[in-house]
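Proteins fold reproducibly. Look at a concrete instance:
___
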Amino acid sequence: MKKHVGRPSNEEIRSEKNKKILIVGIIIVAILAVVGVFEIGNFSNLMGNSVANDSEYTCDSGYTLRKKSNGYECYRELTEKAYRIGDVDRDNKITTSDATLVREYVSGIKLLDDYQILLGDVDGDGATTITDFSLLNNYAVEYRAGSSAPINKIGNYICRAGYKKFRSYCKKDDIIAAKKKNSNNISNENNGKIIYGDVNSDGIVNVTDKTILSGYISDIAGYELNEAELKAADLNLDGKVNISDYTILEGYFEGEITELPHPSQLFGDINFDGLVDVTDQTLLDLYVGNSTKNNLSDAQKHVADLNLDGLVDATDQTIMQQYINGSITKLPYIK
């Protein structure tokens, strides 16, 4: 006698169908995770939120947006001329002037940037010393006399750290994080506060900033700075960006300087007597009260701008009062 097998119930059919849908869904998620399109654990995508696309991100001027496996980044290609070992002053000639620069550097008379130090290391021992001066000076003298025989590594093209040589040029990719549009991010600032030393506006101070600052000071193409970056690079707060700021940043990395910025002037000392006291407070009060009658020189205005907002006003008066009565212990005062 045959056993009668009944039709499955509607509930059993739905249960079996749901199992199949679940299995298919798991397979799809696994495939997408492998190719990097879907991140496991990002349940917002399962809830119907759109996956971020290039219309949601932006880059600073000069950078190009590109997709990574896990998001977006901004990049630009930095290109600069390659120089020959021995051409310390980067004038495309190897002369006794280059040897003189090395001698002055070794004697502590002149400062050289990282690239110049590399160009001055003609014996390739990793340091620029008096030996390099002797070799370079001999080469320059012989070259001038008509002999062009190479000495050690002199005459070979070389790139600064982080760059790769491409024919007679040096190239590298400069990569920073992409920014979300309408996120109210301020380039090089954190809630309106400048990050001093962060020359490339990536939110941190590292050796990349040192390289960029060196390139800017040396007037190398590709190392131009915008207004916010110039503010971040003015580490001694003198209103200029030059070798003094590079020296401060170098000291910061070597641990000789523990805090940035590192002012070269005594802020608040409006009468330049080496003190910040009630006399300076009086000069500031008079100027804010009537700037036409009680004018200050540009240098005085610079040290009177106690919160570095580009103005000399009632806010600076308050900061001065707080400094003199001891409630503020350091100038300039940046919240």
